[in-house]
Amino acid sequence: MNLANDERFITSIQNVVPRVPRATRRPPGHYDPPEHGEYRAAIDPIFRRVNLRAHEESFQASATTLIAAMLERGHADAVQDLAAPFVVDCFASLLGVSADLAHHIRTVGVRYTFAIQDMDEQVVGECSAELYVIAENVYRARLSQRPDPSTDLVASLHAAALDPNTAITETTAIATVRQLIVAGMGAPQAVIGSSIAHLALDQSLQAYLRTHPEELPAAIEELLRLHSPYRVFARTASEDVVVHGRLVREGEPVAMLFPSGNRDGRVFEDPDVFKLNRKGNSHLAFGRGPHKCPAAAMGRREIAIALRTLLESTETFELSGDIKMMNWLEYGPRSVPLSLVPRETPEFR
Prior knowledge:
Blueprint: E1 9-10, H1 35-43, H2 49-52, H3 56-73, E2 75-77, H4 78-95, H5 99-118, H6 121-144, H7 153-162, H8 170-201, H9 203-211, H10 216-226, E3 234-237, E4 241-243, E5 246-248, E6 253-255, H11 258-261, H12 296-312, E7 314-319, E8 324-325, E9 333-335, E10 337-342
Antiparallel strand pairs: 1-3, 2-10, 3-6, 4-5, 7-10, 8-9
């Protein structure tokens, strides 16, 4: 049974575990079809590969700048110095905001991410409120420039809000921008951090990918399988349902542990082993069903640019301390201390 694509399991009651008390549901993840589909109709086209190509230069510029600073010091934290600021820069580029606002989003976004790990409710609350302010500022600023709804996230959501046939309003469109900023920070940061940690621990794979860069896309798929970031998403039974012999009662939440599913030995041979070019690697890193991650293509590009740039600009990198893992939300590291040996003439493609 696929709980992620079963109409008897809904997300409008509880979409994460443990439950996070909030006054209102946050779109789009806290909505069920068909209402959820209205948001996805506005969001999904923006994340198509053809639209992402316009942002790749700025993605690359961020990775190059951040990694150059790491190499200058010779030591760095792969999460705090690369993954966390990089993914915020990428999403700011997608939103089309000014350099000053992009910097502000990075400052607040990185602070918010680590406050969640520290379970600092005061800072989480402050940053969450500020992210709503940022989302509204982004919304107003983008609309003032009259962007194309076929390529611009805000313009697409705004067009949907103006459509009387949808339930989307300007308020929920702004809330959606806020949620996408948060989602755009957490998951790719976790995977990039996990991937760098994996390569730091596997020097032979690291060296192989330097000399065989054409294998990086396949390596990324296996890294996504092994280090899937989503571990707290949930569905709630809308009626009594028997799942593999277990009765799930109406109103009972069920956690969908994608990292566990991706290491299911009934599906993946030697599930805990990294296998380049694994056959049948139909992993769950981006979810399944109507709530499948709309930004899967962007996530793959972010991971590819970050890893490729790091590999091309170094002779080697290795751990210089203990990896510290996140406490909640995404599965991944919050700290990956590295020592790095720069390549004399890095070749950025």
